[in-house]
Amino acid sequence: MFKKILFIIIIFSLSHLKSQDLSLYKKEIFVHNSDSLNYRILKPLNYNPSKLYPVHLFLHGSGERGNNNTAQLTHGGELFLKQENRELYNSWVIFPQAPKHDWWGYEDPYKFAYDVKESKAMNLVVKFMDNFLLRKDVDINRVYVSGLSMGGMGTFAILNLRPDMFAAATPICGDGDPSSVSSYAKKVPVWIFHGSDDKTVHPNESLKMAKAIIKFGGSPKITFYENVEHGSWNNAFAEKDFLKWIHSKTKQ
Predict the structure, then answer these.
(1) Model confidence pTM above 0.85
(2) Dihedral sign computed on CA atoms, order 219, 224, 229, 233
(3) What pLDDT sits at residue 105?
(4) Which domains, from first to last, does the chain contain?
(5) Which residues of the chain are under the pLDDT cut of 70?
(6) Residue partners of 47: CB distance under 8 A and separation at least 6
(7) If we measure between CA atoms, which residue out of 160, 208, 209 comes closest to residue 187?
(8) DSSP for the chain, written as a single string
(9) What is the pLDDT, as a whole number, of residue 16?
(10) Measured between alpha carbons, how far is 116 from 135 in angstroms, rounded to an integer?
(11) What b/e string do you get for 80-104 counting C-beta neighbours within 10 Å, with b at 16 or more?
């Protein structure tokens, strides 16, 4: 009986700790004209306003859309909270949330039938980033973007919209327009991830984008995971060099 009670206490404590950890991401709303964007932001560890910190933008997948300003932390939120990651790769971490009937594809066709009525989310993310990078505690030469699934598509989209903003990008199981890569192919190091057995977004889509970047003079890194379907973000996050590679990049 005592062991059972102890087990329940431990499970409750771990669950509570997890909840407390995610609460370190402060809830905020960015307003531009009459439109608003929910986002969560993690402040750098031991924040010092006189220092310059990198910025890591993270774009969620279609399943995390909504208006609760919480679901976007489902995948990736805990990665940035690990103590070793906060110490080694200390930065601002930003998770915006797209509304239910929007996506990160900007003006691209809604080829994945996301039930999009009118697309504003990516434009708001761009406006937000333009504004955030004016801060005096931001290292504008070390701004990064990652995204999974729909967010992987958003990663390619925002690279095209702001090719001079980012020092590195990591799109995971995403897709994009190969004709739009010329603006950033030579400028932004890209590490692409995909599951070889992905039936939701075919791995050929990532291969297509890598080939396009190479065509326009870039040198992308690409990792395929055998016997892995759509959840390849778990594999990407488990890469020991995932954050190390990203934070090794600085705009020239």
Answers:
(1) yes
(2) negative
(3) 80
(4) 26-247 (3.40.50.1820)
(5) 1-20, 106-114
(6) 53, 137
(7) 160
(8) -HHHHHHHHHHHHHHHHHHHHHTTEEEEEEEETTEEEEEEEEPPTT--TTS-EEEEEEE--GGG-SSSS-GGGTTTTTGGGSHHHHHHS--EEEEEE--TT--S-TTS--TT----SS--HHHHHHHHHHHHTTSTTEEEEEEEEEEETHHHHHHHHHHHH-TTT-SEEEEES----GGG-TTTTTTS-BEEEEETT-SSS-HHHHHHHHHHHHHTT---EEEEETT--S-THHHHHH-TTHHHHHHT----
(9) 41
(10) 33
(11) bbeeebbeebbbbbbbbbbbeebbb
Tokens 């996050």 belong to 237
Amino acid (1-letter code) at residue 68: N
Dihedral class, residue 172 (left if φ above 0, else alpha if ψ from -120 to 50, else beta): beta
Phi and psi based region of residue 149 (left: phi greater than 0; alpha: psi -120 to 50; beta: remaining): left
- Residues in a beta bridge with 171: 147
Q: In angstroms, how far is CA 135 from the centroid of its own chain?
A: 20
- Give the strand pairing for 53-59 and 92-97: parallel
